[in-house]
Each structure stands twice: as C-alpha cells, then as structure tokens.
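User: Show me a protein chain along with its predicted structure.
Assistant: Here is one chain, sequence first, then structure tokens.
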Amino acid sequence: MLALRSFAVSILVLLAVVVSASAQETILRITLQLPMASHLGQNLLMFKDEVETASDGEIEVQIFDSAQLYRDAEVPQAVGSGAIDMGVVSLTRYVGDIPAVDIFYIPFMFDTEVLARAATDPESPVRQLIDDAILTTGARVLWWQAYGGSVFVSNGAPIASPDDVAGRRVRVFGRTVGNWIESMGGAPSLISGSEQFLAYQRGTVDIGMTGIAGVQSRSLWDVMDTVTATNYALVEFLVVINETFWEDLPQHHRDIIMMAARNAEIAVRDEIARIEAGAYEAAAMNGMEIYTPTEAEMVAWRASAAPVIEAYLADSGDLGHRIYDAAAALRDED
C-alpha cells in the first residue's frame, strides 16, 4: 500500500513538472545600441510592458541597452544567425546585403512628415519590399522605430551649404550618405552611433551626421556646439527577430508580440514630432546654436543630391529600381 502511495505521489510530481515545463516562459533578449533613456529605449519598454502583461508572465523581455552585447553594425548578423533573439538596428546597416534599403538615405527623398508616414506604413510598397528582402537574411522585421530627421553637428560654425563640407572629415551612418559627402568634396568616415561621441571628442572627424534625437540622448552638446537643421534624411531603426526563433514560438505568443509591436510602432511614429521638438529645445538649452539654412541654401543642398540618386540606382539592382519607383509614386501623391 505504501509502495502504491509513493508511486502515486511520484506520478503527481512528474505531472507537475510537465505542466510547469509546458507553461515555462519565453524569454526575448533584445540588444539596443542606444541608452534606455533614449526614445527608442522607452519604446522598447512600452513593448516589454505590454507583452509581459498580455502573456500573464509567460513571456519575459530582457533589454540589453547601450551596446552592451552588440554594436549597431553587428546586429544584422547577430540576429540573423540566432546569436541573439532580437535587436534594434539602423536600417542602413543592411545595406551590405541589400543595397536597396538605402532609399531612405537618398538626401531629401522623404523630407516631410506626410512622406515619412506614407513610406513607412506597413502597407506601403516601399516598406513591404524592404521587409521581404530583410527576411532573406534570417531576420523578421517586427516594427519600425522612427528616429526623426537628420542634422549636421559641428563646432564653431554651421554647415550652411555643400561648400562647407568640402575638405572636411565627416562622420556618416551609411553608404549612401557617405557617397553624398564624397560628391561634395568631403571625406566620409563610417562610425557607429555608440562611438560618435568619442569621435567628436577626439577630433577624429570635423562634422557629424546624426538624428536630432541622438544629439539629446547622447549629450552631443558636450563635444559639438552647432546643429544645422537640414533634415536631409529620414533615419529609421528596425526591431528584428530571428526567423527560426520566431517560427518556433507558440502562435498565441506570436499574436501577443505582433500586437505589442504594432502598438509600439504607432506610438513612436505619433510621438516623433514632439520628441524632435524636445531635442532641439534641449540642444539650445545646453548651449548649441541651431542654424536653419536659408531658402537659397536649401536649393543648393537639394541640387547636391542628384549624383547620389544615380549611384543608388546603379548599385541597388532591380529591387532598388522597384523601391525607387514606389518612392517616386509617393512623392507624386504628396
């Protein structure tokens, strides 16, 4: 009798272990190059809170910020290979595998909020073509994170016209904007976002290209004193997940993640104008001059983009032509 009772207890313990294992949480590890205080970090926290609440604790989201695990340039390979589950990465970091993604870094291609929203909408042919291409690298795009328009940062004087770039060393964040700098007579240097502060501090470069939000989140006013508000490129980050990891998730976990991802994307897109305004205000309060080019200077800036368009079409193949045509159609509608 005692033996039977012990056997019954053993069965109950085994069943409890099986049930516990079946309810074991999914852990999502996310790498982020920016500080948690940045608006991209706060957007990840929104995603984390919604996922963990909606899953009743079955899904845990772990965020590793400030490039603790991977620098921006390393994220595509790390996520695509499964070295980490998820990552936040600048869109242009996929240019090595997919040159066509740099449509967003053709100067002045998407330079209004209307165009930005149209191009990044989940139903946009521009975005759909890019998301599908990135899937071939082993990573699925969950959502896009708006980072805002791009500016120049410098010391001593604004970068008021293309002539001010000639003969200067410039921190760039991608191939296409690097080609643009070269076409204006500058010397581009591809430097990760997490490393640009030191590059300015050490004088490695004379000018920086970055999003205005990055000026605030990285306190670039400690090493640069001028912002030139040209808004020449739309900086976009992606939150990607390893495709094999994604396919192995239970469907109800995928549903929760996708809903939270969509809500996070809407929130950051709707907030970007306020975030940028706050970043400009913070930069000015911390002693930076904010220079807005004149209409004549902007004409010169826009004219300087012509050779970059030709180079993009020459380098990006059939996919690039399809994406460019879709982008041009959006501009025609604007």
